[in-house]
Amino acid sequence: MHDYSIRAAGPDDLDGARALMLDTVYRDFGTGYVPRWHADIIDPAAAYLAPPRHTLLVALDPRDNGVVVATAALDSRGPAHPPNPRDLAERYPSGTTAQLRRVYVRPEHRRRGLARRLVGELLAFAAAEGGYRAVYLHTDPQVPGAESFWRSLGKAVHDERDDHQDGGNGVVHFEIPFETAMEQ
User: Fold this and answer.
1) Whether the model pTM is above 0.90
2) Residue 126 near residue 181, CB atoms below 8 Å
């Protein structure tokens, strides 16, 4: 079993975090880098380190010289409309919504409880910061394991696949109750 080290990212962690995030959007999502969706990946310091009430966590593998093997971020921006449905933007407003982002684990480190540990740390951060009324995220159900992982932690509040006649490739939006968060 690996003894991962989880911590808030610092400047020395950003290159490793960025590389992992970019690998994920290319490999798992198949979209590659899309500026309007992934600007935070290119400048994670501005997105997560500088603003108050935001954070970026990294998990390091001590067996591999402390390389970044997982990331998880939280910010205080609710889902924007568009592209997200208007009712979600209204239900999860910026400022009072803790949005989980970039919960990514390198494939060779998956299925070891690492993402669950990172999410628990993010939720503890949100609770400690205060002022958050909801924890929100969205996921791409095409990524293997992503939808079932998030369903194990929260509840789906909107499935965009239901919005399309052909089943679509829409994302699934989730809320994670704070009570669940504190149990992690």
Assistant:
1) yes
2) yes
